Amino acid sequence: MSTDLGALRRLAEEGNEQAGDRLADLAAERGDVEELKHLIDAGNEIAANLLARFATERGDVHTLNYLIDAGNEVAADRLAELAAAHGDVDTLNRLADEGSEIAEALRGRIITEAE
Predict the structure, then answer these.
(1) What pLDDT score does 53 carry?
(2) Closest by alpha carbon to 12, among 49, 1, 65, 3?
(3) How far is CA 44 from CA 35, 66, 94, in A?
(4) pLDDT in tens, 54-97
(5) Which of 3, 54, 84, 103 sits at 20 to 30 Å (Cα–Cα) from 74?
(6) Do residues 94 and 86 touch, judged by C-beta distance below 8 A?
(7) Is 8:21 a contact under the CB 8 Å cutoff?
(8) Is residue 14 classed exposed, middle or buried when 0-12, 13-18 and 19+ CB atoms within 10 A define those classes?
(9) How far is Cα 38 from Cα 42, in angstroms, rounded to an integer?
(10) Phi and psi for 14 in degrees, rounded to 5?
């Protein structure tokens, strides 16, 4: 079954959330980061969560920070997990200061383990 991406894009641009979500899924399947970013800029949360997953898998801190700046909490949690895995307390401090409960918990765990 082929999918008409042009038609889906038009529907998404007209505000059809299902079309936007389907575009996000298809973009993720293709690894199309630019399409995901376009959808994120249009407010699609599924695209943001999918991109957060990809960025985490690749250790792409830059993209995770882009998503955090766009208000995606999943990206903040994923970055906190990456920071904790690398012992990056500075990043955990920043994320905790910005309200990430996961960063705060992971920071506490790292500090406790270091004692």
Answers:
(1) 93
(2) 3
(3) 11, 14, 26
(4) 999 999 999 999 999 988 999 999 999 999 999 999 999 999 99
(5) 3
(6) no
(7) no
(8) exposed
(9) 6
(10) -80, 0
Helix axes 17-30, 5-13, angle to 10 degrees: 140
* Cα gap 101→68, rounded to integer Å: 14
Question: DSSP of the chain, one letter per residue?
Answer: ----HHHHHHHHHTT-HHHHHHHHHHHHHHT-HHHHHHHHHTT-HHHHHHHHHHHHHHT-HHHHHHHHHTT-HHHHHHHHHHHHHTT-HHHHHHHHHTT-HHHHHHHHHHHHHH-
Count of Cβ atoms closer than 10 Å to residue 40 Cβ:
23
Residue 12 sits at φ, ψ, to 5 deg, of -65, -40
Q: Determine the pLDDT at residue 2.
A: 54
Question: Can you give the residue ranges of every domain in the chain?
Answer: 1-58, 71-115
**Around Cβ 91, how many Cβ atoms within 10 Å?**
20
Tokens of 96: 């905790």
At 88, list the tokens.
């990056």
